[in-house]
């Protein structure tokens, strides 16, 4: 915190220096002093940047920003260029979470994965090693396509809750859909059902304070994740909780791409039809998903609750592949999700299918895709034709040329806005969850995905993907290369911000 205060003091000094040099009537000696102070601060910042040993291109980029954009460049560096601070900012949460996960893993037996194919088992073992969560072979999953099917199932299950409802969302709006769910939560709380409701402070800015008060008066416990008023001076506002989790009575869990708002039902004039995918979980994997929620709740409420919700006894079900719930983010201490995506792609022997609204891949991901395509694998990437932001729209397209040259098939989804986050490998491994294929999901956001290995639900994902292909247009490399200088300039400019997209 002391370091952060010093940095903001530097901002004030830099602004004062600019004022004195360009707008004041002070003499040349005073102006020279302030120029020297300004130069010293920038030199210290650049020197510190060099000591971080980032990649050469990232180091040079931030050097240029600091040198050529007075004051603004330094402020932008503090809030975007120094995001490595995540390890420090969430040190206590990461330490506590790891201790809790270790306790859980000690009390549980490792599953038998001998029924998996060699590449499936290799990925499952890597996934288990790199994360702190247990792979389940005693869980069932159901794919939910789009908002109508998803929220119909959610509302139906919420109404059946008997003991507790634990809910966590990045975006929760006070529109028609949001109020319908709020009414259900209020009614269940009045019936004596424990309701815990956690929302991200930035994503849920359109959650009305009056609705929060209604929930609290009914007995719902409400928490906000990283409120802005506590995050401005320590940079925490950069890190958002992008998770979407519902756990009901420890028996049913929901996770996936859908937030709560009418646009997710396709009722928004701005977005039109909304293509998304969610998942219903039952069985022992629900306990893992619940633990992710409880650890987030403990972090914001400062109340230890994990021991109050022990794992339930699940009957022995027929094995339907393996299910692995994986949480990632600043609280995990490493870039788990990007590594898992890369590992799954690298294990592919036949095909890699991707659907994502934001495609800003890391260098390892791009390498995996290029190598797979050159090996003759079927590599498909599906993105929306129009995105919801200038930078994400053009940064995504900036990665197309190198992939198209290698034989990667890129599809532009035209029916509406594609928001699902899907990865399917060889038709027998898949990922579904909250993490996009971009740097923000890999490095900054709190995310949660479910990895399916040999599960029958993968067939539904394949069917849905093939249906989406029919609503898409395959990009022609020749036609794409003919795009004008204006579009290429926009792409190159947007790509400069890839690290925070």
What's the end-to-end separation, in Å? 26 Å
- Specify the CATH architecture of the largest domain: 2-Layer Sandwich
Percent helix range? 40-55%
Strand order in space, largest sheet: 1-10-17-16-15-11-12-13-18
- Which sheet architecture does the biggest sheet show? 9 strands, mixed
CATH H-level name of the largest domain... which superfamily? Answer: Endonuclease Chain A
Domain count: 3
* Uncertain ranges: none
Sheet-strand content, in percent, reads 15-25%
Strand segment count: 18
Give the mean pLDDT: 89
Give an overview in words.
The protein is of the alpha/beta class and 501 residues long. The protein folds into three domains: 2-81, no CATH class; 90-105 and 137-320, Endonuclease Chain A (Endonuclease, Chain A); 336-500, Endonuclease Chain A (Endonuclease, Chain A, 2-Layer Sandwich). Helix content is 47%, strand content 18%. The protein has helices spanning 2-23, 28-51, 56-68, 72-81, 86-89, 91-106, 118-130, 146-159, 176-190, 209-217, 228-231, 285-301, 336-346, 363-374, 390-398, 400-405, 439-444, 457-470, 477-481, 485-495; strands spanning 135-136, 139-145, 164-169, 194-200, 221-225, 245-248, 252-256, 274-275, 277-283, 322-328, 351-355, 378-384, 409-413, 417-418, 422-425, 429-433, 447-453, 472-474. The strands form three sheets. It has a nine-stranded mixed β-sheet with strand order 1-10-17-16-15-11-12-13-18, sandwiched between helices. The chain has a seven-stranded mixed β-sheet with strand order 2-9-7-6-3-4-5, with helices on both faces. Strands 8-14 form a two-stranded parallel sheet. Strand 15 (422-425) and strand 16 (429-433) form a beta hairpin. Helix 1 packs antiparallel against helix 2 (28-51), helix 7 (118-130) runs antiparallel to helix 13 and helix 15 crosses helix 20 (485-495). It is globular and about 80 Å long. It starts with a helix and ends in a 6-residue tail after the last helix.
């Amino acid at each position: 915190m002391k370091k952060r205060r010093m940095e903001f003091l530097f901002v004030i000094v830099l602004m004062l220096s600019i004022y004195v040099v360009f707008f004041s009537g002070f003499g040349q000696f005073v102006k020279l002093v302030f120029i020297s102070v300004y130069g010293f601060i920038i030199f210290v910042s650049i020197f510190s940047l060099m000591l971080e040993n980032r990649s050469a291109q990232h180091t040079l980029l931030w050097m240029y920003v600091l040198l050529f954009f007075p004051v603004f460049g330094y402020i932008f560096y503090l809030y975007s260029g120094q995001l490595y601070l995540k390890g420090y900012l969430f040190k206590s949460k990461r330490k506590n979470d790891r201790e809790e996960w270790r306790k859980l893993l000690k009390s549980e037996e490792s599953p038998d994965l001998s029924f998996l194919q060699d590449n499936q088992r290799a990925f499952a073992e890597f996934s288990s090693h790199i994360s702190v969560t247990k792979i389940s072979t005693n869980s069932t999953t159901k794919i939910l396509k789009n908002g109508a099917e998803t929220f119909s199932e959610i509302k139906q299950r919420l109404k059946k809750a008997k003991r507790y409802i634990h809910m966590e969302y990045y975006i929760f709006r006070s529109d028609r859909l949001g109020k319908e769910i709020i009414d259900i939560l209020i009614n269940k709380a009045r019936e004596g059902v424990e309701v815990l409701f956690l929302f991200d402070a930035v994503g849920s800015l359109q959650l009305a304070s009056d609705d929060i008060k209604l929930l609290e008066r009914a007995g719902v416990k409400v928490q906000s994740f990283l409120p802005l008023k506590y995050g401005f001076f320590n940079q925490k506002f950069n890190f958002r909780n992008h998770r979407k989790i519902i756990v009901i009575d420890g028996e049913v869990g929901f996770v996936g791409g859908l937030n709560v708002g009418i646009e997710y039902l396709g009722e928004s004039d701005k977005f039109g039809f909304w293509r998304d995918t969610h998942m219903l979980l039952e069985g022992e994997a629900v306990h893992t998903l619940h633990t992710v929620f409880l650890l987030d709740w403990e972090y914001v409420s400062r109340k230890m609750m994990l021991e109050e919700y022990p794992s339930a006894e699940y009957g022995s079900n027929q094995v339907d592949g393996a299910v692995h719930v994986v949480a990632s983010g600043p609280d995990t201490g490493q870039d788990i999700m990007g590594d898992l995506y890369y590992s799954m792609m690298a294990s592919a022997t036949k095909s890699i299918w991707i659907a994502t609204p934001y495609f800003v891949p890391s260098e390892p991901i791009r390498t995996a895709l290029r190598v797979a395509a050159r090996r003759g694998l079927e590599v498909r990437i599906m993105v929306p034709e129009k995105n919801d932001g200038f930078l994400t729209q053009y940064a995504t397209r900036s990665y197309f040329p190198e992939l198209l040259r290698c034989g990667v098939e890129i599809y532009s989804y035209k029916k509406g806005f594609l928001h699902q986050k899907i990865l399917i490998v060889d038709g027998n491994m898949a990922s579904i969850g909250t993490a996009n294929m971009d740097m923000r999901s890999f490095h900054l956001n709190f995310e949660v995905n479910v990895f399916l290995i040999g599960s029958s639900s993968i067939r539904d994902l394949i069917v849905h993907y093939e249906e989406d292909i029919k609503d898409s247009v395959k990009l022609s490399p020749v036609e794409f290369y003919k795009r004008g200088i204006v579009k290429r300039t926009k792409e190159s400019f947007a790509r400069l911000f890839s690290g925070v997209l």
